[in-house]
Automatic annotation (TrEMBL):
Phorbol-ester/DAG-type domain mapped to chain residues: 143-194
Function: Positively regulates lysosome peripheral distribution and ruffled border formation in osteoclasts. Involved in bone resorption.
Keyword Zinc: yes
Any one GO molecular function term: zinc ion binding
SMART domains: C1, DUF4206
Record-given protein name: Differentially expressed in FDCP 8 homolog
Organism of origin: Myripristis murdjan
Length: 448
């Protein structure tokens, strides 16, 4: 194995030359070859790494051209003026370059200059392999809706082959549903359907903590692509997904982390755990979906998490305020209920939660925002709007003059007729509602 300071690694056995990110930073200006203008490319390359183009290098260019055996091909032309258009010719030239790099003295200017030429050739070869002009803007595959990306500067990683997507020279697509990214050339190799379809059809979480079944049940293969895996890393490392409990290869499991719903519900634990790529996308799409009914899954959680009790009370109050708003013209014009547009389930029920709700409850963000909204709603009903004030109640047990509302903290509501009383008065009267008593003795009477 020989190497030089810029980060080029060469193998004597395989004759493979890998260009590192460090080299790409130095030689990125070579992309100007797309303009086929030698006078533009040369200054850019000199600015990127001037020492690679010293006077000694320029005077010896003819010797190096003869070494490559390509005296009349593109090596004798200025940078950016490659004339090799045939892929096979480019592959032969690349192999010849790699052979010469291994033979040249280590750290020599001739070796470095040959590496630059190798980069040029590989860029040209990649361009011929991935032509942009024939690629459609939208492609549909396995329920994925792939949209062609136009960004040339943002660096991404292909979800299929796990290699870097160089937007400057490669065509790539992103699924608008699950944000799966891949090269154009990798699209025909995709076997996994879009995760959004699973979210639409299933919409539920795995509620067992890391339900492992064992590698033997998986036949020692990746749970997604069926590549052979083992815990020893031969032929590929087996990585466990904490959400599904299954094992995946390194191409399907990148050691991404996510908060696991089962651990939150059963342990109130929010530490991110390692998950596979498909689980990460699924959890991201499910994050804001209210599919968790805590009082059925783990009702004891309310006994140990005070914040949950507080949020439940605020949500119950908001549901009691909702009838006032939907019959109030001013409230409808002010669109008060739309203050909860990002948590619409809060105005529909008080027992369904999303994973994002639980995360925000744990951090304290939801309590602050919901308390502020609750205060705004109560202010409209009790102070700002005369129509809403007129819908208040007077305690029929003590006959005091203050107006009561069902969402007040010191009141109790009759479950049968929804009449509102002072809590102390109601319990002192053995929770007996005088309105219901009158209706029982005189069915024709309608207190409403």
């Amino acid at each position: 194995m020989v190497s030089w300071s810029a980060g080029i690694c060469l193998s004597d056995q395989s004759h493979v030359c890998e260009i590192s990110m460090h080299d790409w930073v130095h030689f990125r200006a070579v992309c100007a070859y797309k303009e086929n203008n030698a006078s533009c490319c040369a200054p850019l390359l000199l600015e990127a790494k001037p020492e690679l183009f010293s006077s000694e290098t320029r005077t010896q260019s003819s010797d190096r051209t003869m070494d490559l055996g390509l005296a009349e091909d593109h090596f004798s032309r200025p940078v950016g003026s490659f004339v090799a258009s045939d892929i096979e010719q480019l592959k032969l030239a690349i192999e010849e370059c790699k052979r010469l790099i291994l033979e040249l003295p280590e750290h020599s200017e001739r070796q470095k200059d040959t590496v630059v030429k190798l980069i040029h050739l590989r860029l040209k070869l990649q361009e011929l392999k991935d032509p942009e002009e024939d690629e459609p803007n939208l492609r549909v595959l396995l329920e994925h809706r792939f949209s062609k990306e136009k960004s040339k500067s943002v660096k991404q990683t292909c979800d299929k082959c796990s290699t870097i997507i160089w937007g400057l020279i490669q065509t790539w697509y992103t699924c608008t549903g699950c944000y799966y990214r891949c090269h154009s050339k990798c699209m025909n190799l995709i076997t996994k359907p879009c995760v959004r379809s699973k979210v639409s059809h299933q919409s539920e979480y795995e509620l067992s903590i890391c339900p492992e079944i064992g590698l033997d049940r998986q036949d020692y293969r990746c749970a997604e692509c069926r590549t052979p895996v083992s815990l020893r890393g031969v032929p590929s490392e087996a990585r466990q997904c904490d959400y599904t409990g299954q094992y995946y290869c390194s191409a399907c499991h990148w050691n991404d982390t996510a908060i696991i719903p089962a651990r939150v519900i059963h342990n109130w634990e929010f530490e991110p755990r390692k998950v596979c790529r498909s689980s990460m996308r699924y959890l991201a799409l499910m994050m804001s979906r209210p599919v968790l009914k805590l009082k059925e899954i783990n009702p004891l959680l309310f006994n140990f998490v005070e914040e949950l009790v507080e949020i439940r009370k605020l949500r119950q109050d908001i549901l009691l305020m909702k009838p006032y708003f939907i019959t109030c013209k001013e409230a409808m014009e002010a669109r008060l209920l739309l203050q909860l547009h990002d948590r619409q389930h809060f105005v529909e029920n008080d027992d369904m939660y999303s994973l994002q709700d639980l995360i925000d409850i744990s951090s304290g963000r939801l309590s602050c925002s919901l308390t502020e909204i609750h205060t705004t709603f109560a202010k409209h009903i009790k102070l700002d709007c005369e129509r809403c004030q007129a819908k208040g109640f007077v305690c029929e047990l003590c006959k005091e003059g203050d107006i009561l509302f069902p969402f007040d903290s010191h009141t109790s509501v009759c479950h049968d007729c929804s009449a509102v009383f002072h809590r102390d008065c109601y319990y002192d009267n053995s929770t007996t509602c005088p309105r219901c008593t009158r209706k029982k003795h005189n069915p024709a009477e309608d207190p409403a």
